Structure formats: structure tokens, C-alpha cells
């Protein structure tokens, strides 16, 4: 789905992201599509009022993936992603003691998205090098460090995209080995849910949102005949069915999926990631629209009317954590806003007024 003028974003992408071009005035997109209005409000509020905006952290990487989804969906840029990437010299975070720590790779997905607008080799040079080094490490037998569910979203999309972009079977094979190692330790196939880590007995909505979103992102780029697709599709559809069943009446998912009494109340970051995954599944024809469309609509209604304030503040975002925890209306964060924006991209494609 596109708004009038969206083609100008493709033609003049670098300018749109970097400085002066507004491909579509805010009012035009917002008049046509309430989803666009909500996305623009949330993105603008965060870049104006958000905290710790400079670093190449996983939180900011998640936001900028969403920020570029905002540009693609609405044709409107807040001109923040390209300067952020340039200021960070298109580098990933690093630590010699943990050379392939997945959180440090999250910014790579944003750089890869930026590369589709601004295809200069330096934009993804560090991502490509990190992936090449990681593939060599996996081939030497180091496959155990995706030992928390967030890792799937932080690292897996970049491996898939570099692997497909470069036609690299070793890269895609390494991705599969890492995924299978994580699956063996963290995934409960009977439930269709992931534990946050091997020591956890809780099934966290944001953790499962990370997993569902990662699977959706990888399935988007793998060719239809790729031998890894059936395995990933099996997990994706099993998860989707479980999450469909677990949605709250108000449209959110509990932060602790199987213990609604544990930190009860709305939580928006997990809900947004789940909404993204389910909406993408419907758009891709993988999930049945008759079953899942109402679930997506309820979730978006909750996110855009309860979590999102009229001024663009996006609340009920559980702070950085390693499992279910308390959430307040005033809690927000880059990861939650980014998740909301990618969810909006998929919901817009399901919304007739946004075509």
C-alpha cells in the first residue's frame, strides 16, 4: 500500500532521510489514514522528547527500523535515521569478550534498511564483516550463544538478509544452526511459546514478540524454495495460533502470557511486536484473515488509543528487562516506539483507507 507521493521517497530517499525533503505533507497522509496519523505522532514525539537517542544500541536500532517503516508507509521523514547512522559511522557495538553478542548486532538491521534507501557500501560494511566473522565462528562449532529469546530479533534478520543479498549458503546455514540451538533450549513446541532463557519458567510477551517478529522478518527475505522456510513457518504458525488464543479482551497481551495475575495490565511493546508478526502473516497469506484479522484490529485499537496519547507519547512500554515485570502508563522507550511503528506498517497494508 502507498500514499500519494510515496514514489518520491524511492527516488529521493537519501534527501528524505537526511535533511529537507518531505515526500508527503503530514496532513495528507493523516487525512487518508488514521494509522499514518498515529505512526507520525509517535515517531515525532520520540525524536523530540526521547532519551539516549545517540547510541547504536539495540533500543535505538529497534526504533530506527520502525522509523524507516514510517517513511515507507507514510512518505514522511523526520530526518533522524541517516544522521544517527552517520554519527555512529555505521558501526555495530562490540566487545572482544563477546564478539557475537546478539544485542550488539541489532543496529545492523537498521543499517540494512537504510541501505535500501541509500545504497552505499560503507552503510553495511561493518554488518557484513561481523556476519562473515560470525559465520566462520559457527563453522568452527560456536553455536550456543543465542541463549535468550531476544537474540532471534537482534541478530537473525541481519544474517538472513546478508545471506540472501550475497547468495551465501554458508551464511544461511549458520543462521539455521544458531536458530536450532536456540530452539532446542528455549522453545516449547507443545505450547508454541518461547522462554526468555533456559533458566526461566515464564513465557514473556515481549520475548515471544521478538521471536515472532524475527521469524516474520526472515520469512520475508528467504526465497520461496529455500529449504529453511518450512521449519520456520512451522514455528511461526504454531506461535501465531497460541498468541491468538492468549490475547486479552482489551486487545493487549499480558506481559506474562500464561500468568495473567503476574504484573497484570496493559503492556505495549510485546503487544506491538506480536501485532506486527500477526499482521504480516495475514498480509503474506500465511495466516487466515478470517481468524486473525479481528485479533490484529483489536490489538491496533489498544495500541493506538490506549497506549498512544493524543500528543504522540507511547506508553505502557515495559522497561528494559529480562522477563515479565511491572508496567506503568508513563513508561516508554525506543524499543516500544519502534515496535509500534513496524506494527503500523503492516496494519496500514490491511486498512482500505490507507491504500
Automatic annotation (TrEMBL):
> What domain of life does the UniProt record list for this protein's source?
Bacteria
Where does the signal sequence lie? Answer: 1-29
- Classification via Pfam families: Glyco_hydro_88
Q: Which UniProt keywords apply?
A: Hydrolase, Signal
Q: Does the keyword Manganese apply?
A: no
Which InterPro entries does the annotation name?
A: 6-hairpin_glycosidase_sf (IPR008928), 6hp_glycosidase-like_sf (IPR012341), Glyco_hydro_88 (IPR010905), PolySaccharide_Degr_Enz (IPR052043)
Q: Which SUPFAM superfamilies match?
A: Six-hairpin glycosidases
Q: What is this protein called?
A: Rhamnogalacturonyl hydrolase YesR
Give the originating organism: Amycolatopsis oliviviridis
Q: What taxonomic classification does the UniProt entry list for its organism?
A: Bacteria, Bacillati, Actinomycetota, Actinomycetes, Pseudonocardiales
Amino acid at each position: 500500500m502507498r500514499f500519494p507521493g510515496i514514489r518520491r521517497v524511492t527516488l529521493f530517499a537519501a534527501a528524505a532521510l537526511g535533511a529537507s525533503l518531505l515526500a508527503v505533507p503530514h496532513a495528507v497522509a493523516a487525512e487518508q489514514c488514521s494509522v499514518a496519523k498515529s505512526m507520525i505522532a509517535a515517531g515525532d514525539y520520540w525524536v523530540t522528547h526521547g532519551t539516549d537517542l545517540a547510541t547504536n544500541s539495540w533500543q535505538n536500532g529497534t526504533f530506527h527500523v520502525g522509523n524507516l517503516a514510517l517513511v515507507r508507509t507514510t512518505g514522511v521523514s523526520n530526518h533522524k535515521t541517516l544522521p544517527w547512522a552517520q554519527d555512529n559511522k555505521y558501526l555495530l557495538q562490540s566487545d572482544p569478550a563477546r564478539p557475537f553478542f546478539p544485542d550488539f548486532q541489532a543496529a545492523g538491521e537498521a543499517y540494512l534498511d537504510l541501505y535500501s534507501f541509500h545504497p552505499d557500501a560503507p552503510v553495511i560494511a561493518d554488518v557484513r564483516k561481523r556476519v562473515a566473522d560470525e559465520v566462520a565462528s559457527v563453522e568452527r562449532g560456536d553455536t550456543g550463544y543465542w541463549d535468550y529469546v531476544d537474540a532471534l530479533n537482534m541478530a537473525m534478520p541481519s544474517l538472513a538478509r546478508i545471506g540472501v543479498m550475497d547468495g551465501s549458503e554458508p551464511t544461511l546455514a549458520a543462521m539455521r544452526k544458531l536458530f536450532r540451538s536456540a530452539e532446542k533450549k528455549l522453545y516449547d513446541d507443545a505450547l508454541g511459546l518461547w522462554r526468555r532463557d533456559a533458566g526461566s519458567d515464564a513465557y514473556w510477551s515481549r520475548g515471544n514478540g521478538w521471536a515472532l517478529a524475527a521469524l516474520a522478518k526472515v520469512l520475508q527475505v528467504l526465497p520461496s524454495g529455500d529449504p529453511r522456510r518450512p521449519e520456520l513457518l512451522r514455528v511461526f504458525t504454531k506461535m501465531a495460533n497460541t498468541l491468538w488464543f492468549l490475547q486479552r479482551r482489551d486487545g493487549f497481551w499480558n506481559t506474562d502470557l500464561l500468568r495473567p495475575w503476574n504484573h497484570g495490565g496493559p503492556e505495549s511493546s510485546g503487544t506491538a511486536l506480536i501485532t506486527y508478526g500477526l499482521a504480516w502473516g495475514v498480509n503474506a497469506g500465511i495466516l487466515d484473515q478470517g481468524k486473525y484479522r479481528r485479533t490484529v484490529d483489536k490489538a491496533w485499537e489498544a495500541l493506538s488509543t490506549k497506549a498512544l496519547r493524543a500528543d504522540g507519547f507511547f506508553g505502557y512500554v515495559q522497561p528494559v528487562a529480562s522477563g515479565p515485570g511491572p508496567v506503568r502508563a508513563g513508561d516508554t522507550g525506543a524499543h516500544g516506539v519502534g515496535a509500534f511503528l513496524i506494527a503500523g506498517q503492516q496494519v496500514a497494508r490491511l486498512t482500505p483507507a490507507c491504500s
